[in-house]
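Re: weekly structure request thread

Next one in the queue (171 aa):
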Amino acid sequence: HGAIGEGPLGWLQLGGDIVHLLAAGVWVGALGAMLLLVLRPQATIDREHLQLTHRVLDGFSVTGTIVVGLLVATGLLNLIVIVGWPGIAALPGSLYGQLLLAKLVLFIVMLGLAASNRFRLVPRFKVAMAADDEAGALSVLRQSLAVETGCVVAILLLVGWLGTLDPSGAM
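Done, posted below.
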């Protein structure tokens, strides 16, 4: 649906779609890198690796905030261009709308997990590292990132399915 519009609005929507895709790619790529760090076998984890893991997890916070802002802005733009204001109310009554709403719910779950990681789990991991007791904190981070990854996989499946449907059915 990236090229669904025509004229200036179509170009705006296409640009928004490109930015949306790039922002999502940054989030998914960062999530993959973080998973590689936290899922490293316990026997190969040393102090240096723990410090690197914390720096990466903590350092993504600014980038992550920008990515989320871009995803929300471009997602709203796509919604307005593809479905239109009148079509928003009809979303729950169509398969396209139900899948889109499922995607939004999964995105909100991801936002909640990302916020928990940023404001609770990563700081707790730092405190645990200082006390040489990072195993529990690392385990909770692993679980959170694994659930977030599961949400990404489900969102990608939904996006693939949405791409096969006519969004006009939502109007």
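The mean pLDDT is 89. The CA atoms of residues 9 and 81 lie 8 Å apart.
Next request, please.
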